[in-house]
UniProtKB/TrEMBL annotation:
It comes from Marinobacter vinifirmus. Pfam families: Acetyltransf_10 (PF13673), DUF7931 (PF25559). InterPro entries: Acyl_CoA_acyltransferase (IPR016181), DUF7931 (IPR057691), GNAT_dom (IPR000182), YpeA/RimI_acetyltransf (IPR050680). The keyword Transferase applies. One of its GO terms (molecular function) is acyltransferase activity, transferring groups other than amino-acyl groups. This is GNAT family N-acetyltransferase.
Length: 321
């Protein structure tokens, strides 16, 4: 079945959108009406999926409170159309609508539906919580444009441990989307090796928040930053340096010892399966892998050797918070 999609604001939305949500959420799932209908409807774009005869089948809404982040919600498929690919087609359409518009997509998924959303590049980013008496988890896609491009030939794009094909990148935007998608899924370990912590690449608010979450996630969390040059960090405040000094037991920065063998290409390792590798220190050109355990194992041995020979940055220790 190939649905067609129509987009409305709430004031002009047909009654069928309200009817679908009434049947699925209020009648079927017993969501209280006062929770189902909220002020967000007024600011959201509402999507209606219809068949070739214009019969309504499903609905969802898409809204933004900050221009960089889009939120998908109230996604509902009528019982008689489930199992026919209608929900998949609707979610693909929402991702396509978001590509190039939002840097991040978020949604609240019922526990049983998380596997469905992972197939489209969304990963879990919260602990379970109750919403209207139903267990939920927050999920996000940190690179909607990349997910949209990949859905034609990948299952579970951008999902750590599941996306088995390598991603090639040749521009900074793609590289940053892959970097953030990897860091955002780190459970315990993030190792980074580079010439320096370039401000354009690493001095970003979103990356700081993602790394902060990694460092705080587990009592054995480990964030290691291994660089050649700390002078730019001394001259100009850097968000990762400030974060490191606040989380000194979970984050550490060292300087490469040039008297020992060292790698000629920068890379980042995430847990035991994620890697982002650049061919040059000064170019956004390389590859990323989300299920590359073999390659990660080889590179972590090289990182560990450089780390053991490295020294702390005394200059950064003296900087005031």
């Amino acid at each position: 079945m190939t649905p067609r999609f129509r987009k409305y604001n709430w004031q002009l939305a047909p009654a069928s959108i309200r009817d679908i949500r009434q049947r699925v959420f209020i009648d079927e799932q017993k969501v209280p009406p006062e929770l189902e209908w909220d002020d967000t409807d007024e600011i959201a774009d509402h999507y209606l999926a219809v068949d070739q005869g214009n019969t309504p089948m499903a609905t969802a809404r898409l809204f933004s409170t900050m221009e960089e982040t889009g939120f998908i919600g109230r996604m509902a498929v009528l019982p008689e159309y489930r199992g026919q690919g209608v929900g998949e087609a609707l979610l693909r359409h929402l991702i396509a609508e978001s590509a190039g518009r939002f840097q991040e997509l978020r949604l609240s998924a019922q526990n049983h539906a998380t596997g469905f959303y992972e197939r489209f590049g969304f990963h879990i980013c919260s602990e379970p919580y109750d919403d209207a008496g139903i267990p939920h988890l927050d999920m996000r896609c940190l690179a909607p444009s990349l997910a949209h491009q990949a859905l034609a030939d990948r299952t579970q794009p951008l999902i750590l441990g599941a996306d088995t094909e390598s991603w090639l990148f040749h521009d900074e935007g793609t590289m940053l989307g892959l970097m953030d998608s990897l860091v955002g899924q780190a459970g315990q370990r993030l190792w980074l090796y580079d010439n320096l912590l370039d401000h354009d690449l690493y001095d970003r608010y979103r990356l700081r928040e993602l790394i902060s979450a990694v460092a705080r996630r587990h009592r054995l969390s480990e964030v290691r930053l291994l660089i050649h040059d700390d002078k730019p960090l001394v001259k100009r405040r850097h968000q990762l340096v400030e974060l490191m000094r606040r989380l000194s037991s979970r984050m550490e920065l060292r300087l490469v010892n040039t008297d020992y063998p060292m790698e000629d290409q920068p890379f980042m390792l995430v847990d035991r399966e994620g890697v982002l590798y650049r061919h040059h220190f000064n170019k956004p050109d390389g590859f990323a892998g989300f299920a590359a355990s073999g390659r990660v194992k080889l590179m972590e041995e090289s990182f560990q050797r450089m780390w053991d020979a490295a020294r702390p940055s005394m200059e950064l220790r003296e900087l005031p918070l």
